[in-house]
């Protein structure tokens, strides 16, 4: 048994918080081991002057960590689940999906104004096509401003660019201790979250049974079922985290409900539906929901988005 276990993580403040959370949880489960965090930068961290969608999103925030896993520089990699592509490199698997934080988006605005009350033509910052599309569907008058960078950078740009509001994930805001800045939890009927949003994922080598056993206490069954349904939904749509797809899976009375949406980038159309079924059929439910949206024209919307931004995530 190797006593020291190296944990790989992006080196942003939020990513390192997540890695420390994983390390602390693992230390409680395995007091005799030494968990050490190794921070590193990814392609997505280096390219800050180009919209994510124009780069393409295959492993933007994960590839370097996955390379370190494959060459045994680290034993496990900690990710935001929403950053993990639905197709992982050969030889890697998601060993644990941690208990999910509230997965929705939040509005942070000047003078604590809610989304419905923002002035006409208000400047709203987001780096996400999913958020942009859904907010424009709800409020076509809003002026969306693309802002990139880690959480603290985006909060700084919110002030520097004198934006009226900014949209971010609740989970990151809470984890960094900025809850007092929240003006509104954006309802799911306005903005569905990104696939996997709110959960921390732990990636390992597929054949590394020892590490799989070590991280087993972190795997949260209900969160895994919900997120596996969401990921199957996105995989069938052949979408990535930089296309206008929203999804939210949740369990109630031993059933899994999955809501999904594909939205036109300019907010002119939205195709949305939900499906409910047994938890054990999580992935099947995700695929079925995607098929419903495809029948209703989702592929046309996604193709237009890919053409407009000049990227391909297939």
TrEMBL record:
The record's comment on cofactor binding reads: Binds 1 dipyrromethane group covalently.
Keyword Transferase among record annotations:
yes
> Which cofactors?
dipyrromethane
Instruction: Output the GO biological process annotations, alphabetical, semicolon-separated.
Output: protoporphyrinogen IX biosynthetic process
Task: Tell me its EC number(s), please.
Answer: 2.5.1.61
A cellular component term from Gene Ontology for this protein is: cytoplasm
**What residue stretches are annotated with the Porphobilinogen deaminase C-terminal domain?**
226-294
**UniProt keyword annotations, A-Z:** Porphyrin biosynthesis, Transferase
- The answer to whether UniProt assigns keyword Membrane to this entry is no
Q: Which residues carry this modification: S-(dipyrrolylmethanemethyl)cysteine?
A: 241
Please name the CDD domains in this protein's record: PBP2_EcHMBS_like
**Which pathway is recorded for this entry?**
Porphyrin-containing compound metabolism; protoporphyrin-IX biosynthesis; coproporphyrinogen-III from 5-aminolevulinate: step 2/4
Matches recorded under Pfam families:
Porphobil_deam, Porphobil_deamC
InterPro entries associated with the record: HemC, Porphobilin_deaminase_cofac_BS, Porphobilin_deaminase_N, Porphobilinogen_deaminase_C, Porphobilinogen_deaminase_C_sf
Q: Name the family the entry cites.
A: Belongs to the HMBS family.
Q: Which PANTHER family match?
A: PORPHOBILINOGEN DEAMINASE
Q: What else is known?
A: The porphobilinogen subunits are added to the dipyrromethane group.
Q: What does this protein do?
A: Tetrapolymerization of the monopyrrole PBG into the hydroxymethylbilane pre-uroporphyrinogen in several discrete steps.
Instruction: Tell me what this protein is called.
Output: Porphobilinogen deaminase
What species was this sequence derived from? Desulfallas thermosapovorans DSM 6562
Gene that encodes it: hemC
